[in-house]
Design goal:
42% of the residues lie in helices and 4% in strands. It is mainly alpha-helical and 421 residues long. A three-stranded antiparallel β-sheet has the order 1-2-3, with no helix packed on it. Strands 4-5 form a two-stranded antiparallel ribbon. Bound molecules: heme C (3 copies).
Length: 421
């Protein structure tokens, strides 16, 4: 009930803001005229190459490529608390893509969240971050996109809750939350984090209207049912994140001093693997700085691994672990002898909720086809909900000093039904 009232208030606020936006003439901006599709050969090769690196830093293809679909041709469903939004075709197909978009139309979409014909784009497209890009970076991205193979593909219709199917509502959102314009930062890491790489779009908590709460930047947030942990002084990491650890993790999806990147983060690291190395180093240095005052400075040696007492408190969990997990995760197992981190070094067991831990157990870890990476079988079909609860409680007790998780069965249900929270 409380939640309904909040929604109602939010809707009323939005309607008022729409009125304000209409009054200031921002709700229905005009179209930018179509242009003849620019010839791919008209773009400078070096510029296209730089654009490709930037596209990896901005994860363009993660959102704009449907599962099994053509690169950048759109159609991927993004689930948000407001409904499902489909990323569009950004290949240069003249009819269904952006083939007839001028440089100006592209710049406006990235900076103001407006499509070429003037309709508002939903902020599931992180233009609230891309708005910070410099002209030179936008030019390179434009050159890259306009030289991709054109693909004919139309994204399905969005499925959104009232009143958000009315795109004009976004004008109000922009009025309230969009801080437009390129960001003047001398720090390359900060520029990338806040602009192109939009790390806060997952790691910064959002308010009821889905806008990032700026004074809790990188404070940890829910994304697609996963928890993107804090990357600031509140980092729950068990061990300190050095610039080198972060660089290796962001680039390879694995840190021998922490754990593997799973879920939505593994998609980010797959893209960063192909981004310019110095840019990934700049991101790593920036976030190491953000987390430098976090309480993680514990020595590895003091992190617990007390199978005895934890086993007594959770006998069923201990038995399941011995049967299904120990041959990889127990000290002395073949995998551990190859320098893999003990479970106590990973952040998931130290987070406030068991969701990420449960996701990994239920879904396993599967590197992208053709790419080497940490692999763990999925156990979702092997365990009952009660067994998953036992295992999670056992892991938390055995590998951390933290209080037991509350309400594991609820988290198991969330993970089972793919709830995005
Ligand atoms: C987090 C997901 C996400 C990422 C990352 C993302 N986009 Fe998008 N983008 C979307 C969605 C969703 C839409 C459609 C929004 C709508 O229809 O309201 C969109 C729309 C667009 C549009 C407008 C297309 C049109 O037909 O109106 C452009 C241009 C665009 N994206 C370019 C990019 C570029 C360039 C990158 C990488 C730098 C990128 N996007 C990264 C989700 C994303
Ligand atoms: C699409 C959502 C998303 C985006 C974008 C994203 N992250 Fe993450 N990130 C996550 C999730 C979810 C996790 C938890 C994954 C896990 O438990 O393996 C995570 C985990 C991490 C971790 C591990 C933290 C720890 O203590 O274990 C780091 C570091 C990190 N992200 C950095 C970044 C940086 C830097 C960026 C921007 C370049 C970024 N993330 C962008 C979703 C995202
Ligand atoms: C075939 C080997 C294998 C088995 C069996 C296995 N895992 Fe894993 N698990 C991995 C790998 C590989 C990783 C990624 C981290 C790494 O590379 O060390 C991982 C990561 C995890 C993580 C993520 C957090 C972290 O610190 O990396 C959790 C939690 C986890 N495993 C729990 C379990 C549980 C519980 C079981 C038994 C139900 C299990 N695993 C069985 C190989 C395995």
């Amino acid at each position: 009930m409380l939640i309904r009232i909040r929604w109602l208030l939010a809707a009323v606020g939005l309607v008022l803001a729409v009125v304000a936006a209409v009054a200031t003439g921002k709700a229905w901006p005009g179209a930018i005229a179509e242009v003849p599709p620019p010839a791919p050969g008209s773009f400078d090769k070096a510029l296209v190459g730089r654009g490709e690196g930037l596209a990896h830093l901005g994860n363009c293809s993660t959102c704009h490529t449907a599962d099994g679909g053509q690169p950048l041709a759109g159609g991927k469903a993004l689930k948000t608390p407001f409904g499902t939004i489909f990323a569009t075709n950004i290949t240069p197909d003249p009819k269904t893509g952006i083939g007839r978009w001028s440089r100006e139309a592209f710049f406006r979409s990235m900076r103001e969240g407006l499509s070429r014909d003037g309709h508002h784009l939903y902020p599931a497209f992180p233009y609230d971050h891309f708005t910070h890009l410099t002209d030179s970076d936008l030019d390179a991205l434009y050159a890259f996109l306009m030289t991709r193979p054109p693909v004919v593909a139309q994204a399905p219709e969005n499925e959104l809750i009232w009143p958000l199917q009315y795109r004009a509502a976004v004008a109000a959102w922009n009025l309230l939350y969009l801080q437009q314009g390129p960001m003047g930062s001398a720090d390359r890491g900060q520029y990338l984090a806040e602009g192109l790489s939009h790390c806060g779009s997952c790691h910064t908590p959002r308010n009821k209207l889905g806008a990032e709460i700026v004074d809790r930047r990188y404070g940890g947030a829910w994304t697609q049912g996963w928890y993107a942990p804090p990357l600031n002084v509140h980092s729950p990491a068990a061990r300190p994140w050095t610039p080198e650890d972060l660089f290796v993790y962001l680039r390879s999806g694995f840190s021998a001093n922490h754990a593997a990147a799973a879920g939505p983060m593994s998609e980010v690291t797959r893209e960063l693997a192909e981004a310019p190395e110095e840019d990934v180093r700049a991101l790593a240095a920036y976030f190491a700085q953000q987390m430098s005052a976090a309480p993680a400075a514990k020595e590895a040696a003091s992190l617990p691994d007390r199978s005895g007492p934890a086993g007594q408190a959770h006998p069923e969990g201990a038995v399941l672990f011995a049967g299904a997990c120990a041959n990889c995760h127990e000290a002395g197992a073949g995998m551990m002898l190859q320098g893999r981190p003990p479970l106590s070094w990973g952040t998931p067991l130290h987070e406030e909720t068991p969701h990420n831990t449960l996701h990994v157990i239920v879904e396993g870890l599967h590197p992208a086809p053709g790419i080497a990476g940490p692999t763990m079988p999925a156990f979702g079909n092997d365990f009952t909900d009660a067994q998953l609860t036992e295992i999670a409680a056992y892991l938390r007790a055995r590998y951390t000093d933290l209080p037991p998780w509350q309400d594991i069965p609820k988290a198991v249900a969330d993970v089972r039904k793919g709830s995005i929270r």
